[in-house]
Please model this.
Amino acid sequence: MTISPDDDDAAAEYALGTLDPGERAALAARRLREPELDQAIRAWEARLAPLAEAAPEIEPPRDLLPAIEARIRGGAGEAPANADFVGLRRSVALWRTTAIAASLLAAVLAIGIVGREMTRRSTPREYVAILQKDAASPAIEVTVDLDRQELTVRPVAARAPPGKAYELWIIDAKLGAPRSLGVIGEARRAASLAAYDPSVVENATYAVTVEPPGGSPSGKPSGPPVFVGKLIPVGR
Amino acid sequence: MTIRGGAPAERTPAGAGDDLNDLLRRVAARDAAAFAALYQRTSAKLYGVVARILTRGDAAADVLQETFVRIWERAGDFDPVKGSALAWMATIARNRALDEVRRVRPGSLDDQPEGFEPTADEVDPLAARERSEGLAALIGCLEKLDEEKRAVLMLAYYRGLSREALARRFGRPVATIKTWLHRSLGQLRDCLGS
Model:
């Protein structure tokens, strides 16, 4: 094994499950690009896995199997169930490559993925994402109205550090690099999404970085995201 | 081909290895009957893993569903040389449960609410009567840790407790818990010799 002792500790805690959400997401992103780290995580999973044998059985709810069978029957050719999580991990990996203060990542990156499976059957046209670090921390609320192609940002008590600004980004594999949706002000603010395909808007990851006032001078995120989330439909 | 497992009396314990390997192989070949049989054989075991981590019943049921969808999709990746079929499935289930419990949503709690620390029904692998070779080796190594540090590992593994929750429960700073985890896990790795 050639990974550092610190990385092996992180791999062990990943497998055990004790990393906090930000560290867990960061490691999940790194393992996609670092085969040795991925291998270390798998080795730890294998070491701990026999413990599961000792967990006493609990009868699951009765009607689950038909629901699962319906999903796998309808699932041929569809994306895997957790495609958007994988997508997010890839997005985070993409971020990492642009992140200057990588060491900050563990401290500040936290994932607040809201919702997981986009159901497109009933085509709800309004979506919301709550971007935050953890359940107790201030949040940023993003609302998207697909009909009006408009995005509204409302900082819910979340305030950028003094002399800095929060900038909102849309991230999707189809877009390549993260695209800025503008700097988040104190008040409610609407931005046009007319430039983006609705399927991208629906499935993208939304992230917030800390930038100089007025936004990133380079037009690219200059640090890792401090808030991340995805949209969930709000019914009609 | 018949679908096995109607009456509970016909159910074989989930530990019976070769059969599960065979079922997984057939599931990889898109055998729906084998999938149903695999579900009958292992769902209570896997639910026992996820429901201890996700104490909200609907979340645990969702994760169990996703786990089996994933088992259907990934059955071809299972390699019996690397471990038992049950261990492979339990790892998928546990990872999904951990992703869920470490995902933060509005109104959700990362850990158990205050005053709802798990007390009863803790899993003690040392008390397990049926032990596979892998479990026996792991237990041998766990026995070498002192009791409190072993308890930390077990609550993390079976209940998905975070460092913060463990710190509260054991009345120690989070940094201490982290140090304990690293040391205990390192000792396990050296003891297992892999």
Summary: The longest helix of chain B spans residues 32-53.
